[in-house]
């Protein structure tokens, strides 16, 4: 058999390189559910939607799917934020708040809703290379401005968000980065535990009632949404995983090795909301920092989507093993 020619190898190389070079993320300004200036980032495998007017990543889904795992409050389509409201205007999606929540009343004069610039003011938006950059106003109570750098992989269903808090003015404040992702009704939620977890039961209880069907097996806490009561648990995990009958979403931010964490040492929390709003929150938290003007702190979080494939417990284990 004659050896393949150098020209054949060259042609094969050019085909491979050309195939790789076609992988790309596109950015497009769109109207989304009544908000006229939203941004769509997409590749061949996934797409995400950012709505700066309400300061949120509103959706992240696999290409071709009609909807995604993020919960969206469709009753509020196109509505503006209401910073003066005494009630929380819950749009859904993914956002950042300052932890610990127990300090909000001391800082803002009210324990709820969340601090204004973190939750209920529009964000400015700018494209920088492949990143969409959202920046907040300076929060009047914390003296902090937030920045979120959002990117979508060119060739994978993977979103990355780098969240930064910058202390601009005011007295020093002890604060941590807290990321809240609201998601639709799951089939099940998973909280993979580190090998040497801090908690003897695998979690710490943060509400009067535990989530429904709570179980701890093989270093994995899992549960479903409780329909009758709001429930919350925390742990020292670095991953949170949501799944329904079509899609699995893995959210990851590595727990820092040092520092004081809020909520009795929690770097990961699961909240399940009672009816009628059928959603859950997967929340990852960084350590607390005493921030004075000029200081900043950052955390990177990744979101990976997978098509459901067979036994859910086995798929979750494989996702974690292959990371």
Structure description:
The chain is mainly β and 323 residues long. The chain has a single domain (27-322), classed as Beta-galactosidase, Chain A, domain 5, CATH 2.70.98. It has five helices and 21 strands. The protein has helices at residues 6-21, 104-108, 116-119, 262-265, 312-322, and strands at residues 26-32, 35-42, 46-51, 56-62, 94-99, 124-128, 131-135, 144-152, 158-167, 173-184, 188-192, 204-205, 212-217, 220-224, 231-235, 239-243, 247-252, 268-272, 279-285, 289-291, 296-307. It has a ten-stranded antiparallel sheet, covered by helices on one side. Strands 5, 10, 12, 15, 18, 19 and 20 form a seven-stranded antiparallel sheet that branches. The chain has a four-stranded antiparallel sheet with strand order 1-2-3-4, with no helix packed on it. Strand 16 (239-243) and strand 17 (247-252) form a beta hairpin. The longest helix has 16 residues, at 6-21. The protein is globular and about 50 Å long. The N and C termini lie far apart (42 Å). The model is unreliable at 1-21 (pLDDT under 50).
